[in-house]
Each structure stands twice: as C-alpha cells, then as structure tokens.
Amino acid sequence: MSNSLLHFRPAIPADLPQIVRMLADDPLGAKRENYTLPLPQSYIDAFLAIDRDPNNELIVVEDASGSVVGALQLTFIPYLTHQGGWRALVEGVRVDKRVRSLGVGKALFDWAIARATAKGCHMIQLTSDKQRPDAIRFYESLGFVASHEGMKLVLPVAGDGRSSSSGD
C-alpha cells in the first residue's frame, strides 16, 4: 500500500472501537482485551488519560477510504541517562490483519521514527512478546536491536480486582 494512500492522525474517541478490535484480534490480545460494544469504561478512561498527557500520543493510520487500519501509542520519556536525553517508547502496535504485509506497518513506523526524531528523542524503543516471532522479525527488519533483556512484573489493577494476563 502506497504511503500516499495513508493518513496519520491522533486518535479520537470514535476510533476506540476499531483500535480495541485490532488489539483483541490475535491470540494474545484475545486473552486480555474485551472487545464488546459498547466498550468497557476502562478503555474510555485510558483514552482520556492518554489524550490529556502531552507526552503521550495515540496515533491511527487510515487507508484511502478513511478506515482505521493501524494504531500505535508513542510515549515521550525524559531520562537522566544519556545526558538528560529523551526517548520514545512505542506500545500497542497493531495493523488490521486485512492489510498486513502491504506496507502499513512499515509506514506506521517510518512515521513514528520521524515523529520521535522531530521531538528530539535520541532513541526509540519497544518491547514485543516473545510469542510474537513475526513481529520481532519485523522490528528487526526496521533496524531495532534486542540490546537489553526486558523484564515485567504483572500487578493487580487497584480497585476492580482485574489483573493483566500478560505483561505485553
């Protein structure tokens, strides 16, 4: 799919059903997401928190018809390391399975890398579940290197008894 046919923009509340559908549309996501309509309030609350935080951007990519076909979240993080540098963290990457392998993911990352560069970040980083070897190969093809060993500790969600089934 040609980059000229894709449009990148900040997500709006009306995009949430499509984003959550993509998050739930794989074996790992199906275990932890709740794609029911209307969406659970927790997704709306999370969207609002992301939207009001100037260091977070939830981005969607639309195809020529205006359909949301991909999404990711960029978080800009100041660090004391690297002489007080900034980095960008990429999370929640999804491309609609109907358009996978058509260049949407690459275009989404080209956009994210350019955005992080424009924001003055010295690094862009991400994690990927080890159960997603295709995603890991894709990230490696973009130049990402598995330079560190990542660890996660899944915590119970305060107040509602939920806990995440995966640290991804």
Order of helices and strands: EHHHEEHEHEH
Helix content percent band: 25-40%
DSSP summary, beta strand count: 5
Q: How is the CATH topology named?
A: Aminopeptidase
Low-pLDDT sequence parts: none
Radius of gyration: 16 Å
Classified by CATH, the class is Alpha Beta
Distance between the termini: 28 Å
What would you say the CATH architecture is? 3-Layer(aba) Sandwich
Total count of helical runs of at least 4 residues? 6
Into how many domains do the coordinates divide?
1
CATH superfamily caption: Gcn5-related N-acetyltransferase (GNAT)
Overall shape: globular
Strand order, biggest sheet?
1-2-3-4-5
SSE class: alpha+beta
Indicate the proportion of strand residues.
Answer: 15-25%
Q: Major sheet: size, sense and barrel closure? A: 5 strands, mixed
Mean pLDDT metric: 91
